[in-house]
Amino acid sequence: MYTPQFSDKGTISVRRLAWALEVSMPKAVDQIIDALPFIYTQGVICLACKDQTKCAMRAFCDQTAGGQSKPAA
Question: What's the pLDDT tens digit per position in 46-65?
């Protein structure tokens, strides 16, 4: 699994969000990812996707039987 290195600004921001949410930094990042559908539409993200092998794992899409993604409920 890829583990990105955050910039100093990113680390500082996530740490403060984690404190505000009263969760660990990894859980704060998960909550940020879960909030993405409210910021970006599924279509914008899916059209830019370069790896459709993990569609079922995305927070913002469900995988249908035909291999097409649809917005999460």
Answer: 888 888 887 777 776 654 43
Six-digit token pair at 62? Answer: 């469900």
| pTM strictly above 0.70 | no
What's the CA gap between 71 and 61, in Å, rounded? 5
SS3 43: helix
CA distance 6 to 19: 17
3-state SS, residue 66: coil
Beta strand residue intervals within the chain, DSSP E: 61-63, 69-71
Closest CA to 64 of 44, 38, 46, 45: 46
Which residue has 């409210």 as its token pair? 38
Token code pair at residue 12: 């500082």
